[in-house]
Amino acid sequence: YSSALAYGVLIPLFLVGLMVRQYFALQEARLFYASAEAATPQHVTLRLQTLHGDQLVSEALPKRLLAAMAAHMAVHCRGQKRRVQLQDGSISSCEAGDVPDVDPVDQLDLVKAAADVETSRNIDVLRSRRIAEMLTERIMLEEAKDRWLIGSQPLLCKYTLCQDVWMDVVMKLFAVALVSCVSMSDAWKWAIAFSLAMAVLVGACQPYMWPQVSQLQSLSCFSLALASLAFVYDCAWLARIALLAPVLLLLWQVRCPDCTEALAERLYQELQLELPKLQRGESHEVLVKQLRL
Fold this sequence. Notes:
The chain has helices spanning 2-25, 61-76, 107-113, 117-143, 147-151, 153-156, 166-180, 187-205, 211-232, 236-253, 260-273, 275-279; strands at residues 32-37, 43-50, 80-87, 90-95, 283-288.
């Protein structure tokens, strides 16, 4: 009962309180967007606009511009060398040098392959905006003075956006639900239902910063449902496949351990180190390339 109380009540209540705090503390990250001026594949200039239609003006503007440019390059300029320059109220990047080897495709690239040109372009724009918001939230967490947010940074940064911490609440309730239904006569039905629901939820929402984690967790829940079904019907080969599937997926993911979100974070960190040079009007070259084995 003590474990059920902790996992089913106390921890979810703490996480709900954290969700409320981060919602109000980080709402500034959702109040502006980056607009491109005279954007071409070779050259792009970004400015930050608030949702009220005004240009963003604050002491943190340079860091916000770096975050927006890092997100843009990670989505639109993979496999390129780019020259970045910070100007008064804007930031620009242009091609610089030869293009290295082509980066591996991710799951959104596969979705875009089946979409028309306009839909594909919209997918890229929305993803760039989401990643820029992610980087901005991380900047604000580094500057936060709220002890709750400071202590919860590792937990919040697991997710693409801090508001996705609701997934931790769901996972705790899922664990409690699985344990609670063990004593029921039809426990296997509930175990399969809960596991399939979690597999669909994680697979559809993709809440984690690393897509590989979302894929692995979704498949693990699906495998748990298959294993439950195999044990009920005494199907040994199905149980072995279900238990082996997450391991095979993990081995497949090792081929390309990087992702667009992590690439954007690395680009931002590199540009942040060069911020004094960029503020003097000098340019800096970055290689927009994912890591792979």
